[in-house]
Design brief:
The protein is mainly beta. It is 3% helix and 52% strand. It contains 4 helices and 45 strands.
């Protein structure tokens, strides 16, 4: 196959232009019959083989032209498109579930030896009102007009590759696991896409190499799970080729359709080598800061061991391009959970997830941010978030012998008072058709300096789906630590979620010495019970989309059975058809403190019993508007004092090139015997996207409680698929001093080479 470039858009064959130029069918010509999206049969599509050549915008290659190649220019004017099956029956999930989409969508699928092609005409009678928030890669897709595609290449009805594109060609891709339970948004694949906006709407022309996907090449005929979606943001409308209820998403693969007809395709060697080079200048007044210029180089490698197993290797890993963590206020007795942002660890992270995994659309009273056995931020970062050098590491993920498997091993250097350490993780999961999945995980963190310190964690789990609407999740985990000894934790949760009811309950036990040093546990030495009941009412009133009243209770005791926390909450959340939201909630709280709790040095809550109530109100405008905001206010008691909390966040999109995000949180706290104080955090972020390959962002945060300003400026140029140039400046400034606490200027270049 030859790929060539030409500067001008090629005019198509006149004989194939009739269907392209035709006006979309009027709304009155479409079916007006509402279908039951829950009972609707799953659709089937057939891919048609096209010529084995592709021509990108640029110089015409005569040989490719003679073969009627697909010209990837955002215009579906090649003869092959007219021969492809027309897929045009898109059904709304919102706002009018079961009704045809208000704007016609026509999708076609072709393939050749190396590429899967998707061509889509997205008709729109008002193309000037398309909502395009950004050209940035991995843009916020919920705020945009988009076309989306998911491919379940092993037809296991659980896992998928997801591709999204907006009308200006900005893309977002991800891997999704466990039938929509988890998503790896950091996954990136090599592909080409072109879009055009015209007076009929907009057009997508996509070429996805089979080397980007994983599938079983031993099957002569490939059947894949597939779904497609369209979002018309100004109407708050989502429609799907395989109909879904509005509580589900495009990666709900158990409800997807099927793509047939792929024959004689191969996945290739699936080898990607990605070296990097970085130069940095560091400085600052904080202890331990090494001032001066430094340079480094390293390598990442990705190789498909089999069609289902992928090996990732990294040497002298560098994360200088990663955006800084968001500043947050912590007025609790417990540590904060910060998400992983480093690409190497976020990719395929769902394989290693173990703990309080939340089922989408079910309320569980907990999540991985409260309890997880594997939290990759424990590798290569200290407790303050400062980097610990990673020497090398590797990871194998995928499927083998009917099991989903994962293995990871990383070695760090001695730094920040921590010894050189090795981190090893093994993960196995098996899906039983019609029942659910069962899994096991083992984690070892061990010093390699001869001191003999170690922390070992292990666990077994079962995630069951005995009924379409019923989920049951349970786990049992143990830890063995060289200093603390052994302890265990366990949980069982069950939930029922149909289109109307949302009911769940759980019980959990976490031992006092249960300290997984490669995980995160918010509370130890507790026994917790949780229950909730709520309903989802969808009024016939044209103003409302859904009304969701609910009640829930969290009941926590220590290991002796003494009550330490009780939270009762009632709320009503209302979503509008236009995309706005309104909510109100009330809480009744009880807390027992066995020791004094210092909110800050001069504000101490005494030990003993504390009962207090709070009430809150939240408002949100449609994120489809150029200026959108979400605001909330809550007021009431705070242990033996009072607290009023105000928060505001939103975005102003000047156009798809420039956008400003803003956030503010204000906490006014008063406690007896102490002077009242405010704990506030303010943040602002500006993003400029010159194109779908060149982005600049500036992120500034001010934490008033710490009197600290954090600045992060990031320039990113994608010079080739999966290949970047970064220029990043980060500064943390204590306003009480004239010199920044720490600062770092980095220039980094990566280049991915696929074989």
């Amino acid at each position: 196959m030859k790929i060539v470039i030409r500067p001008a858009r090629l005019l198509g064959l006149c004989a194939t232009l009739g269907w392209l130029s035709a006006s979309p069918a009027p709304l009155s010509g479409q079916s007006t019959t509402r279908i039951d999206v829950e009972a609707a049969p799953r659709p089937v599509a057939v891919a048609v083989r096209a010529a084995s050549a592709i021509v990108l915008d640029g110089v015409l290659d005569e040989a490719a032209w003679a073969a009627s190649a697909i010209v990837l220019d955002g215009v579906l004017d090649e003869a092959a498109w007219a021969d492809a099956q027309l897929l045009d029956n898109f059904i709304q999930s919102r706002p009018d579930a079961g009704m045809p989409s208000t704007e016609r969508t026509e999708a076609r699928i072709l393939y050749d030896d190396k590429f899967l092609y998707i061509g889509v005409e997205l008709y729109d009678r008002e193309p000037g009102r398309l909502v395009i928030p950004s050209l940035e890669q991995d843009f916020e897709s919920s705020n945009s007009d988009i076309f989306g595609l998911t491919l379940d290449t092993f037809l296991d009805r659980r896992n998928a590759f997801m591709f999204l594109v907006n009308p200006k060609g900005a893309v977002k891709e991800a891997q999704d696991f466990d039938d929509s339970r988890q998503e790896n948004a950091a996954w990136e694949g090599i592909f080409e896409v072109r879009t055009t906006i015209h007076d009929r709407g907009w057009t997508v022309e996509w070429a996805i190499p089979f080397t980007t996907l994983r599938f079983d090449p031993s099957r002569a005929s490939q059947d894949w799970g597939m779904n497609m979606m369209r979002r018309i943001r100004r109407k708050n409308e989502e429609s799907y080729w395989a109909p879904l209820d509005q509580r589900d998403r495009i990666h709900k693969m158990s409800r997807a359709g099927t793509l047939k007809g792929l024959e004689g395709i191969r996945s290739g060697r699936n080898l990607i080598v990605k070296p990097y080079a970085v130069a940095s200048h560091a400085g600052g007044a904080a202890a331990g800061i090494s001032n001066g210029v430094s340079g480094d180089a390293g390598l990442d490698l990705k190789y498909g061991l089999t069609s289902r197993l992928t090996l990732d290797l990294t040497y002298r890993t560098d994360f200088s391009q990663v955006e800084v963590d968001q500043e947050r206020v912590n007025l609790t007795r417990f540590g904060l959970f910060f998400p992983e942002r480093r690409d190497f660890f976020t990719e395929n992270s769902g394989v290693f997830s173990f703990g309080d995994i939340s089922e989408r659309n079910y309320r569980s009273g907990s999540s991985l941010s409260s309890f997880t056995l594997f939290h990759s931020r424990r590798i290569g970062l200290d407790a303050s978030g400062h980097e610990i050098p990673i020497v090398a590491g590797g990871r194998v993920t995928g499927r083998a012998l009917g099991f989903e498997v994962g293995a990871l091993d990383m070695q760090t250097q001695r730094s920040s008072g921590l010894p050189a350490e090795n981190f090893a993780v093994g993960r196995v999961k098996r899906t039983v058709e019609g029942l659910g999945d069962f899994g096991f995980i083992a984690i070892n963190r061990q010093s390699t300096d001869g001191s003999g310190t170690f922390n070992r964690t292990y666990g077994v789990e079962a995630n069951l789906a005995p009924h379409r609407y019923l989920r049951v999740n349970t786990y049992l985990a143990g830890v063995d630590d060289s200093a603390l000894g052994s302890d265990w934790a366990g949980r069982i949760w069950a939930g029922w979620r149909d289109p109307f009811w949302n009911i769940s309950a759980s019980t959990k036990r976490v031992g006092e010495d249960f300290v997984p040093r490669v995980g995160f546990v918010r509370r130890r030495g507790v026994q917790q019970s949780y229950a909730t009941v709520g309903v989802h009412v969808r009024p016939s009133n044209r103003a409302f989309n859904e009304v969701n009243p609910l009640a829930e209770m969290d009941y926590v005791t220590d290991m002796t059975g003494r009550l330490v926390t009780r939270t009762s909450r009632g709320s009503v959340d209302v979503s509008y058809r236009g995309g706005g939201r309104f909510g109100v909630d009330v809480e009744d709280n009880y807390e027992y403190l066995d020791t004094d709790f210092a909110v800050r040095p001069d504000a101490v809550v005494p030990a003993g019993d504390h009962s207090f109530r709070t009430a809150g109100l939240s408002l949100g405008t449609s994120a489809g508007r150029p200026l959108w905001m979400r605001a909330s206010v809550s007021t009431g008691g705070f242990y033996n004092g009072d607290r009023t909390q105000l928060s505001l966040n939103g975005q102003w999109r000047v156009d798809y090139h420039l956008a400003f995000d803003f956030s503010a949180e204000r906490n006014e706290v008063s406690l007896p015997g102490a002077q009242g104080f405010a704990a506030n955090v303010y943040g602002g972020r500006a993003v400029f996207a010159a194109s779908t390959r060149f982005f600049t962002s500036a992120f500034v945060q001010y934490n008033a409680l710490a009197d600290e300003v954090v600045t992060n400026v990031r320039v990113n140029y994608i010079h080739a698929p999966l290949s970047d140039i970064f220029l990043v400046y980060t500064e943390r400034h204590d306003r009480s001093g004239a010199t920044p606490t720490d600062r770092l200027l980095s220039f980094k270049v990566t280049k991915a080479v696929a074989f």
